[in-house]
Amino acid sequence: MDISDLILPESVIANLRVTSKKQALQELAKKAAELTGQPERALFEVLMERERLGTTGVGHGIGIPHGKLPELDRLYGLFARLETPIDFDAIDEQPVDLIFVLLAPETAGADHLKALARVSRLFRDRAVCDKLRGTDSSEAIFALLTQSPASHAA
After folding, report:
1. HEC states along the chain?
2. What does the pLDDT look like over 22-71, one tens digit per residue?
3. Residue from 60, 66, 112, 152 carrying the catalytic annotation
4. Which of 46, 82, 101, 117 is the most interior residue, by most CB within 10 Å?
5. Considering the domain boundaries, does residue 143 fall inside one?
6. Any domain includes 154
7. SS3 assignment for 14-48
8. Does 13 fall in a domain?
């Protein structure tokens, strides 16, 4: 599984202006609704429900909120680079400025886990994160996310 299997150029938000985790998830649910055709409220609720189980702020300024919805036909990814880092209840207590949302069909079991692992591997690469933080171009961000160096192979 590759990141390019999950996101499209229109799945990238280069400068999201939000002031809280809840607002970030609301804005990302709104964008996800456009991409998936699913109700914004259902998308927001599934992301919030996952956050109630435990934070998806994985540290180093990265958030990977995710959830499953029965109505989805495939895996969907969205990426947002925040204009200003926000408190995301991250495990390292650092603010988050890079968020990758992963949405999966209820039946996606192993594929959902593979996609999460792939996204996690990408964001463990500090050089990639630094480049993502250094650009405010959606096109450049999309290119960075979808390049597939051998070290990121799934």
Report:
1. CCHHHCCCHHHEEEEECCCCHHHHHHHHHHHHHHHHCCCHHHHHHHHHHHHHHCCCEEECCEECCEEEECCCCCCEEEEEEEEEEECCCCCCCCCEEEEEEEEEEHHHHHHHHHHHHHHHHHHHCHHHHHHHHCCCCHHHHHHHHHCCCHHHCC
2. 999 999 999 999 999 999 999 999 999 999 999 999 999 999 999 999 99
3. 66
4. 101
5. yes
6. no
7. EEECCCCHHHHHHHHHHHHHHHHCCCHHHHHHHHH
8. yes
Mean of the per-residue pLDDT values of the chain? 93
Q: Is residue 153 part of a domain?
A: no
Q: Is 152 a catalytic residue?
A: no
Give me the number of domains the chain comprises: 1
Q: What is the CATH number of the domain that holds 133?
A: 3.40.930.10
The pLDDT of residue 83 is 96
Q: Tell me which amino acid residue 38 is.
A: Q
Q: What gap in Å lies between CA 44 and CA 52, rounded to an integer?
A: 12
What is the identity of the amino acid at 72? L
